[in-house]
Specification:
Blueprint: E1 17-21, H1 28-37, E2 41-45, H2 51-59, E3 63-65, E4 76-79, H3 88-95, E5 100-102, H4 103-111, E6 115-120, H5 125-138, E7 144-146, E8 159-160, E9 167-171, E10 186-189, H6 203-216, E11 220-224, H7 228-233, E12 240-243, E13 250-256, E14 261-266, H8 268-271, E15 288-292, H9 297-314, E16 334-339, E17 342-347, H10 352-365, E18 370-375, H11 380-394, E19 399-402, H12 418-422, E20 430-432, H13 436-446, E21 464-469, H14 474-498, E22 504-510, E23 522-528, H15 532-545, E24 549-552, E25 558-560, E26 565-571, E27 580-584, E28 587-591, H16 596-605, E29 608-609, H17 621-627, E30 630-631, E31 634-635, E32 640-647, E33 652-656, E34 662-663, E35 666-667, E36 673-681, E37 683-684, H18 687-704, E38 709-713, H19 723-729, E39 736-737, E40 740-742, E41 749-752, H20 758-776, E42 785-787, H21 791-794, E43 813-814, E44 820-821
Parallel strand pairs: 1-2, 1-4, 2-3, 4-5, 6-9, 6-10, 7-9, 10-11, 11-12, 17-21, 18-19, 18-21, 19-20, 23-26, 24-26, 25-42
Antiparallel strand pairs: 7-8, 13-14, 14-15, 16-17, 22-23, 27-28, 28-36, 29-37, 30-31, 32-33, 32-36, 34-35, 38-41, 39-40, 40-41, 43-44
Helix pairs in contact: 5-9, 10-11, 14-15
Length: 823
């Protein structure tokens, strides 16, 4: 028999009326569509239908009914493995004595009327089946097909019946044992790994199931080169062909492009053709190059399996562009969101080998990016069996976020939870999150633009790739994350048209250079509003974008984490914020962006004293108001008459000093508002006297404070003592980590000797704190602020199990010279 002449499929039995319990499942929906296209009546129910599947079913005219009853016209009921025996539909069907069968059993029954090409294996069945269907379709070779998933887009249906051919291409799932009912013409094995320990108690049990399938295969079995289990089973098959290095079909070279790869194929299967009942005879077939619209080594492997099967079935070489328009399969390396510096993908991988292959693909395609994996284990039985393997594979990512195990109808089992994987991981950056809000905060931190000195393994670029991995409902988090990111992109784009041209907007903005310490990563978004109207718009827009923000002054009391900040940093530094005016009567008007040094100089020129103590504080008026900055025995609110502020809603208020409640390094009324400026009160004095007092204070400061780059005092003074004196008394001056050093001049200052990183500074600060506590019993608290991390995480005892900053819950937004500003 040759295949150049289309063969008509055998006639089907009279039309049935099927009811599918679990119709919205990725395996059930395609089979239902196949039956509908073959002339049968189909409807069904699903407790939790996926939106895209429900839409597909509606377009095909398949009705999703409430999961309570079986329509009276039903003749057969089909259920998926996710539908338990106690489900109302199964109970109703049994009560009416209707024929009830599993999805796999029905597919086997259908395939018995066809020449079946069964795609089997532990990983990649759906993608390989889809590739084979696409290759045959591009060669206009008619086949029916049934996938266990959905193609990307709407160009190809996941299942179709054609009367023009007796061939059926389908993936055959071994998970529930229904593989025993299939007798293929051709069996294509993608790989072999012991999976589904809920059904196969040992690897030998699964091996025997594959061996029996080989024995029932009538034509040929295709296996990958080098698999010892499959080679052991090969003698059971009537004919075995191998694909891979040195096999009957191999890839002799490949080129990878952005969204595709070109495979150059050769081998006996291609070079000499075959003369069997499976294919027409060809005296010679030349080597070919095939373009595949997918990238990565796993897709090369799957493509080779599909092309080998295509050659075997059709007897002809594949056209070079036969897979160039391959649409891909949903939840298989599917890009959900992409912009420069960030790519978000989803993948169905739920076995350690699948995750390893996915990571290999990601590292190949994005070699310089941070790899962030959000993984949800699937089934308690699988998690319990492979928890150590999951831990080893996940340790290869730069950041790992775990979601609790997806039950898939199983009851919880000991050692079957996400926490059991986490317990075996060596990864310092791994944690479990319980809800989407926590996940969003985690991803914001994990994908924040890092500095060039980022300490996330060896991947130090600004870019990240986030993988949502698993076969459960992890996709919901992935799609919601993509929507959230898209909303932020739209928000950022809208700012450029909504704000005045004078407002500076910057993406991935360096922050270290904008602080006095000079360390740290970047801000995802940065803005310098030109005036109050732009600031008001910015603050209002943040609510809809769910964007955290931070008001930056001179950055004098701030450490920026090396991993950066994922929100918006706002700096009031333009001319509109630097107004200085003598109002008369001993009063000055100072904008929020005015430096304290400039304020003191102006006051001296105008003959107003009382501000001299502020001269040496390297901050701005706005930041000092928020923090109630002080030095040399004075505090800024000692000279405040009134403050002009903007609420988060954009309203402006003028409040007198009596309305403010200030304390050490805090002002309660400015925690949730932005200081725009203040009216300050001085006392008349001769300019020469003011200059003399300022010079004396400067000289005192010069002798007691370091000149090297620092963030000011590192720790708050403990009750009745001085942090600097305490640290000095323990002999810690000069201690260093990297280029960060405890100042030899003042022990409460950590200075940057030129090339320090935030990690150096934080490690040194933590060491000092631990030693002070150990040797004196006093626990010092940081005075300097931290952006992009939380002190509660940084200061944990090293002996205490902890997860790093990227996993701490979203904390308050802070300004460098002030207390929290909650978002």
């Amino acid at each position: 028999m040759t295949l150049n002449t289309p063969q008509t499929a055998p006639a089907f039995p009279p039309a049935e009326n099927y009811f599918f319990a679990g119709l919205g499942g990725m395996g059930m929906a395609p089979l239902a569509l196949y039956l509908r296209s073959a002339g049968h009546q189909v409807c069904g129910c699903d407790d939790h239908p996926r939106p895209e599947v429900a839409a597909l079913l509606r377009r095909a005219g398949l009705e999703l009914l409430p999961p309570t009853a079986v329509p009276p016209q039903t003749t057969r009921v089909v259920f998926s493995s996710a539908v338990p025996p106690a489900h109302p539909v199964r109970q109703a069907a049994e009560g009416r004595r209707l024929p009830i069968l599993r999805r796999g059993r029905l597919l086997a029954e259908i395939s018995a009327r066809h020449r079946l090409v069964a795609v089997v294996g532990s990983h990649g069945k759906t993608t390989t089946t889809a590739l084979l269907v696409s290759a045959l379709g591009s060669q206009h070779f008619p086949v029916s097909h049934v996938l266990g998933g959905l193609f990307q887009g709407d160009s190809l249906p996941p299942a179709a019946f054609t009367a023009e051919s007796d061939w059926l291409v389908a993936e055959v799932d071994e998970s529930d044992g229904t593989i025993e009912h299939f007798s293929p013409e051709v069996t294509v094995v993608v790989n072999f790994d012991w999976d589904h320990p809920d059904h196969y108690r040992t690897a030998a049990d699964l091996e025997e199931a594959f061996g029996r399938l080989f024995s029932r295969t009538r034509g040929a079995v295709l296996i990958p080169v080098g698999d010892p289990v499959l080679e052991r089973l090969a003698p059971r098959a009537p004919r075995v062909l191998r694909y891979g290095p040195g096999g009957d079909l191999e890839i002799v070279s490949h080129q990878t492009f952005e969204n595709s790869q070109k495979l150059s194929l050769d081998g006996p299967l291609l070079a000499s053709g075959s003369n069997s009942s499976l294919a027409t005879h060809h005296s010679s077939l030349a080597s070919v190059a095939v373009t595949v619209a997918a990238t990565g080594p796993f897709n090369r492997h799957n493509s080779l399996a599909a092309l080998a099967a295509s050659i075997l079935i059709t007897g002809s070489a594949p056209a070079g562009e036969c897979l160039a328009s391959f649409p891909g399969v949903r939840r298989r390396q599917n890009v959900l969101f992409e912009r420069p510096g960030l790519t978000v993908l989803e993948d169905y991988a739920h076995h350690p080998a699948e995750i390893a292959a996915l990571f290999t693909h990601a590292r190949e395609r994005w070699p310089e990016r941070r790899l962030v994996c959000v993984f949800q284990p699937h089934r308690y039985t699988r998690t319990r069996q492979y928890r150590a393997d999951f831990a080893r594979v996940l340790d290869r990512a730069d950041v790992v976020v775990l979601k609790e195990t997806y039950a898939a109808s199983e009851v919880p089992l000991e050692y079957g939870h996400a926490s059991d994987i986490l317990a075996l991981m060596a990864h310092p950056k791994a944690a479990i999150v319980e809800n989407f809000e926590a996940l969003s905060a985690t991803l914001d931190r994990a994908t924040a633009p890092a500095s060039n000195s980022s300490l996330i393994t060896h991947h130090s670029s600004l870019a990240s790739v986030v993988l949502f991995v698993g076969a459960g409902d992890i996709e919901e988090w992935g799609h919601e994350t993509a929507r959230r990111l898209l909303g932020r992109e739209q928000w950022w784009t809208s700012l450029r048209t909504a704000l005045s041209p004078e407002t500076l907007l910057e993406r991935d903005a360096p922050l270290g250079s904008r602080t006095t310490l000079g360390v740290g990563g970047r801000a995802a978004f940065y803005a310098e509003p030109a005036g109050e109207a732009d600031l008001s718009y910015l603050l209002g827009s943040l609510r809809s974008a769910a964007m955290p923000f931070f008001i930056l002054g001179r950055g004098s009391n701030l450490i920026v984490d090396d991993e950066g900040y994922a929100g918006l940093v706002i700096r009031l530094s333009g001319a509109a914020w630097c107004r200085l005016e003598n109002l008369g009567g001993g009063r000055l008007l100072a904008g929020a962006g005015v430096s304290l040094k400039k304020l003191c100089a102006f006051a001296g020129q105008e003959g107003l004293g009382g501000f001299e103590f502020l001269e040496g504080i390297p901050g701005t008026v706005g930041g000092s108001l928020r923090m109630n900055a002080g030095a040399m025995g004075g505090w800024i609110f000692d000279v405040v008459a009134e403050v002009r502020l903007m609420t988060r809603e954009g309203d402006i208020h003028h409040l007198p000093r009596s309305r403010f409640h200030v304390d050490y390094r805090s002002c309660a009324e400015l925690k949730d508002a932005v200081a725009l400026g203040a009216v300050l009160e001085g006392v008349p004095a001769l300019p020469a006297d003011i200059r003399t007092r300022m010079a004396a204070l400067a000289e005192k400061r010069k002798g007691s404070q370091p000149r090297a780059a620092s963030a000011g005092c590192a720790f708050k003074n403990p009750a009745g003592d001085s942090a600097g004196r305490l640290i000095d008394s323990l002999g810690l001056k000069g201690r260093s980590v990297g280029q960060a050093e405890v100042s030899p001049v003042h022990a409460n200052f950590i200075v940057n000797r030129g090339a320090a990183t935030s990690a150096d500074v934080l490690a040194l600060l933590r060491d000092i704190r631990c030693e002070v506590k150990t040797r004196s019993g006093i626990e010092l608290e940081p005075e300097v602020l931290l952006l992009g991390n939380e002190w509660s995480e940084v200061l944990k005892d090293p002996a205490t199990p902890s997860f790093p900053s990227v996993f701490s819950p979203p904390g308050p937004v802070r300004t460098p010279e002030g207390p929290p500003h909650k978002t």
